[in-house]
Request: fold
Amino acid sequence: MLKTLTWNGAKDTDKVRPPWLVIWGRVLMDFVPKECHYEAVPCRHIPLNEAGETVDSLYRTGTNEEIEGALRQWLLTTMKRLEQPTQSEMVWWHERAA
Reply:
């Protein structure tokens, strides 16, 4: 699954992938450390937890259950964080409501 949900920044790949997949890949790249942007599968290098584990490191040391659990927790944590408004968004909404 992860191999298909990637985008490595090459513009020519945009032509062969559905638009939703290209957008999804670009969103994932925001989480990839800059030094890993040109890895073969950049999204495998997204830090999943405070210990710095990645899908790449867990493929080498973890079980499928550990990988799925770490990914699940990262997704839940990331979604919750993204759902929280930023300070500037809160100020904007407060000013608009006043």
In short: The longest helix spans residues 64-83. Residues 26 and 70 are 21 Å apart (CA to CA).
